[in-house]
Design a protein that fits this description.
heterodimer, A: 108 residues, mainly beta, five-stranded antiparallel sheet, 52% strand, B: 113 residues, seven-stranded mixed sheet, four-stranded antiparallel sheet, 0% helix, globular
């Protein structure tokens, strides 16, 4: 089993749609969780941290379920500019483990 | 606030040549990471340093690869001799403590012909 597993992609959605990405992790002792975004031919960029109580940043909502070792990212009212690869990340610093990423295509 | 700075942005070289990639981490970050990304293998951790000391280099593919961090503000990744299969994007990242997210540089796109 991979340490961090994500939904296989790609996701193809129309503008304005709501899309959800899921991620599971194997290390129950993990303390830090993040979502990154990577555009084509660019570096991964931190999108948001994921907190136990769940957190929201504009159209983006992240949830953490420690019991199920599950993380999610919800994007509401998707825009063309949301097209990218979304990486689930578990752990921080030298304990960081990246998921393989899920590709999102938002169509006009 | 300057982020992680990498140079060069692009490098094209011939097989057998030496390649040196450079990285300046974010000031105050004590961990530095070198990653390689290809379509086939995704993002791979090559090596990381903590307080300028190499901690885990198990991801370095072979002896042709070496990395140094002579001080807190500079690191290099060297490939000698380079081979076509080394063609990839090489990212440097830095972070603060062990719970902090990584911050990536723009990457160096290496092409070995």
């Amino acid at each position: 089993r991979k340490e961090v597993e994500q939904d296989p992609g790609p996701f193809n959605v129309p503008e304005g749609a709501t899309v959800a990405f899921n991620c599971t992790y194997s290390n129950s002792a993990s303390q830090s969780f993040f979502w990154y975004r990577q555009d084509c031919r660019k570096e991964p960029k931190l999108l948001m941290s994921v907190y136990s109580s769940g957190n929201e940043d504009g159209r983006f909502t992240a949830q953490l379920n420690r019991a199920s070792q599950y993380i999610s990212l919800l994007i509401r009212d998707s825009k063309l500019s949301d097209s990218a690869t979304y990486l689930c990340v578990v752990g921080g610093g030298f304990k960081t483990i990246f998921g393989a990423g899920t590709r999102l295509f938002v169509k006009a | 606030d300057a982020g992680v700075i990498q140079s060069p942005r692009h490098e094209v070289t011939e097989m057998g040549q030496e390649v040196t990639l450079r990285c300046k981490p974010i000031s105050g970050h004590n961990s530095l990471f070198w990653y390689r990304q290809t379509m086939m293998r995704g993002l791979e951790l090559l090596i990381y340093f903590n307080n300028n000391v190499p901690i885990d280099d198990s991801g370095m593919p072979e002896d042709r690869f070496s990395a140094k961090m002579p001080n807190a503000s500079f690191s290099t990744l060297k490939i000698q001799p380079s081979e076509p299969r080394d063609s990839a994007v090489y990212f440097c990242a830095s972070s603060g403590d062990s719970n902090s997210p990584l911050h990536f540089g723009n990457g160096t796109r290496l092409t070995v012909t």
